[in-house]
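hey so i finally got around to running the thing on that chain from the lab meeting. sorry it took forever, my laptop kept dying and i had to restart like 3 times. anyway pasting the input first so we r on the same page abt which one it is
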Amino acid sequence: MILVKKLLFAPLFLITFALLISQLSPIFKSSDFIFSLSINNLFQLIIISILLSLSSFLFIIFATLSFDLRLILPVNLLISVIPMFFLDQAIGVVLAVAVFISLLVSYLSLENTLKTYLNFQPTILFGPSFRRLSSFLILVISITYFLASSSIIAQNGFQIPDSIIDTTLKFTPQSETTTKIPQELVDNLIKQTVKDQIQSFIKPYLNFIPAILGLLLFVTFQSLTSIINLLIYPLLWITFNILEKTGYVKFTTEMRPVKKMVI
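ok and heres what got predicted. didnt touch it at all, straight out
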């Protein structure tokens, strides 16, 4: 029964992390996703950020309740295999290794906290561990995206998304024409001209684009999760209160001797 209680949050973590990787899969197959200006892409980024924060939260809860490296390691190995089912083999292996290391380092840091704390306050105890793991995952995702986009650009080159060109042209004053050329043809000609000019400008810097893409993805996820993570602190407090009220966990009060100097 105790083993079941220690592992109860492991399936929840596994499912949430699998959903996270499945949502990341389309991004790793595109080199221009982060530049695409659309409501659907913004919504997808928010969903990924929520899943990322929730995965970090569930791992911290699972690791706290299990508090045993013999249980943590098999779960970490199982979790690390998930990217290989959704991503290209090379990218999947890189992400798998990076995720495993991130989870292991996070647990070892958490283990030290659990061995040395004096008063159980979940937001204070687990907040730093949660934020650290969340940042680790964002970092490894961004590095993996850098490697994936480097491979894509090396094979197919890089094209500025049409959405950026269209948005730019909306703020550009249009000159009136007295010719009989259809306006749509004029717009397409202007769009193609602007696109060619931008492509010519970025061509010498093509090797730097994957790094820029990875950095933009990191900043985007870091910004979104920093907002979402504000909800994690009350969620930590609520979770452990529920666990206590239901008898899932118990707390004891200890009276410890204190050594003081007197004259």
